[in-house]
Amino acid sequence: MNEQIKKIDPESEEFQEELKKTVKFTDKVIKSFGWSYNPDPEINQSIQFGLTRNKLIYGKRYCPCFFVTGNKDEDRICPCKPAIEREIPQDGVCHCGIFCTPEYAKKMKQQEILEEVAHTHSRGLTKEECEILLGKDQLDGDELESLIEARELGMVDFNLVDVREWMEYRAARIKGTDYLVPTTTFYQALEQLNDQKEKPLIVYCHVGSRSAYCQKVLKDLGFKQVGNLTYGIVSYPGEIERG
């Protein structure tokens, strides 16, 4: 092993004492800037461990998500300048994910709850949860099934679009599909939706690759909200129609 590599034992008394100081440090940062911790405690713990490791190795709490180069203009010391000036104001969260705005934290917590509901079907989605879920760029099969169920109850409205070819559509399609817009005749077939650009739309194909491409095109064409079934119809657990 390279002699320059310093071994850090996370179970050692030295590390654990420094970790306590790091937690107090990140608590102070949160309070000073009016930020919130990420709702995912594993992310926070991972970054706190990384900050502690860098403190013991380099003497400063360098950001653990970037290399420490020795260039003071490039190395990020937590809380780093890019996070303070750009990442958190613009994105709501720093690159590492530990610090975020209260609004971002609330949104992420809501996202976590509704994903659990969608995947376990422990209860129906609320209208607000439906709208949050519908705003996602990428959806899995459970999430789409929950949205279709919510649409049947009148809680949310969107168009479900199959971008595969006619023979594929006839062989198997998701029950509730509103339109077929084949990629081979995409622009011509899309004319039937040109007056519905403000209505949310979800696209799907066989495994998610064609629909991801169509998703980008639709956004470029001015469709307000376009979601993609990430792994396609093969990942959908709900009812399938044939013929």
Summarize the structure.
The chain is an alpha/beta fold and 243 residues long. Helix content is 46%, strand content 10%. The radius of gyration is 23 Å and the shape is elongated.
What does this structure look like?
The chain is an alpha/beta fold and 243 residues long. The chain folds into two domains: 13-100, Ferredoxin thioredoxin reductase catalytic beta subunit (Ferredoxin Thioredoxin Reductase); 124-241, 3-Layer(aba) Sandwich (Oxidized Rhodanese, domain 1), CATH 3.40.250. Helix content is 46%, strand content 10%. It is built from nine helices and nine strands. It has helices spanning 13-33, 41-58, 81-91, 102-120, 127-134, 141-152, 166-171, 186-189, 209-220, and strands at 36-37, 99-100, 138-139, 159-162, 173-174, 179-180, 201-204, 226-229, 240-241. The strands form three sheets. A five-stranded parallel beta sheet has the order 3-8-7-4-6. A two-stranded antiparallel sheet has the order 1-2. A two-stranded antiparallel sheet has the order 5-9. Helix 9 (209-220) links the parallel strand 7 (201-204) and strand 8 (226-229). Helix 4 crosses helix 6 (141-152).
Question: Any key phrases for this structure?
Answer:
243 residues, 2 domains, 10% strand, elongated, single chain, disordered N terminus, 46% helix, five-stranded parallel beta sheet, 9 strands, Oxidized Rhodanese, domain 1, Ferredoxin Thioredoxin Reductase, alpha/beta
